[in-house]
Predict the structure.
Amino acid sequence: NWEREITFDLQLYAENSNELDKVWSKVDTLQTYTMGKPANLGASFGVFGKLVSLQIGTMINEPTGFLSAVSMTVDDNSPWDIDKKKPFSCNIAVTYKVVTNNEKNYSFYK
């Protein structure tokens, strides 16, 4: 048995209060991709997550996988918007599990 996973970190910053809502909306959306939904499979039940593709520039282009983990940390030195009760910066760690094996994309010695 083998599996492939890609782990990467993001640093998100909002420069002003208007950008703050947009940044946190994206963080909330990203975290929902790790939530499974119950599904009826006839005689049995299962929980399935959302399949997504991942592209990071020209380095990574995976057609099918799922986010197995998303975690967020806030730096102690980050400024906060007191009215919105949100920090202006955060770090996001993402783990993406690949569920396809399209061999044509993995020619190491081209």
Remarks:
- The first helix runs from residue 17 to 32.
- Residues 14 and 23 are 7 Å apart (CA to CA).
